[in-house]
Amino acid sequence: MEEEKKWYVVHTYSGHENKVKANLEKRIKATDMEDKIFRILVPTEEKIESKKGKQKKVEKRIFPGYVLVEMIMTDDSWYVVRNTPGVTGFVSSGTKPLPLQPEEAKHILRGMGIEDDKIELDFGVGDKVKIVDGPFEEFIGEIKEVHPQQSKVKVLVSMFGRETPLELEFSQIEKI
After folding, report:
1. What is the mean pLDDT of residues 4-8?
2. Is the confidence at residue 1, as pLDDT, over 70?
3. Range of the domain at 32
4. 23 located within any domain
């Protein structure tokens, strides 16, 4: 059986998310589970609150009462997480913990400003590319900017005797 690390949602007492994270990190070290339990996140986002005319940045929990744990699910890793003080259980279908779908995990991590997967690009600024999809198909241009978070590039193409910048998806170009 292929062991794969996945994100799981752990239910905690509301307001105890950071305590659970700290307790779990200590338990992982104490039980030598670093090879099974990898990251623990309390999903938060920055909000700006206005009090008495003053604006202040504050961290707000996105999912109060929940912590995300990236782990390889085994009986031992399940036991360590389940028996951490403050944990009330895994989000599950009955008795078996359900992992987050990869798209859900990526969406949450991106919302927190954490990239889960680094995209490997085979092109960069200055490379010549051919547009393979869209209204400018078959045009040749040079990459001027790369924006991996949005999966977009800015390409300069020559149209009507002048350089014109186009914003394109990675899937619309091919390196030549």
Report:
1. 92
2. no
3. 6-112
4. yes
